[in-house]
């Protein structure tokens, strides 16, 4: 199995929280939490570099229509670096799960966040009929009363072309 290098995965997380046009405190806190969990030893050494690199790329946009395309290009570039060493990276499915958590951190799952996650799912995970998150044509999650549904979600139904999450 090929793994996504940890630092690159964290950069993709940051692009995701920026894709809707704002980076809120709760999203940044979740980014820091994921960074601490994935690379407790070194994350804080390169955290600022990740944020600055992403912000520099995003600020090259002159209008909001280009923002999504520029972010997709950045995500594709960082996620193209793979490793065979499990200790040096994370599995693509874990990346997607954490991205769903990040997308729901602000209590909303914006269409642009959904679009980016679907793009990553299509391009990063090989098709497998048993676990068909790759071919998700529709990803939905019913938010819990506290806002973020992902930590308390479980898969309730999946079919060849879609997955639906529901609050536990």
Provide tags for this entry.
168 residues, 6 helices, disordered C terminus
Descriptive report:
This protein is an alpha+beta fold. It has helices at 6-18, 25-38, 43-58, 64-79, 92-103, 111-124; strands at residues 3-5, 82-83, 89-90, 139-141, 153-159, 162-167. Strand 5 and strand 6 form a beta hairpin. Mean pLDDT is 75; it is low at 128-168. It has six helices and six strands.
Blueprint of the fold:
Layout: E1 3-5, H1 6-18, H2 25-38, H3 43-58, H4 64-79, E2 82-83, E3 89-90, H5 92-103, H6 111-124, E4 139-141, E5 153-159, E6 162-167
Parallel strand pairs: 4-6
Antiparallel strand pairs: 1-2, 1-3, 5-6
Helix pairs in contact: 1-2, 1-3, 1-4, 1-5, 2-5, 4-6, 5-6
Number of strands: 6
Beta-strand content: 5-15%
Order of helices and strands: EHHHHEEHHEEE
Helix-strand category:
alpha+beta
How many helical stretches? 6
The poorly predicted ranges are: 128-168
* Gyration radius, in Å: 15 Å
Mean pLDDT: 75
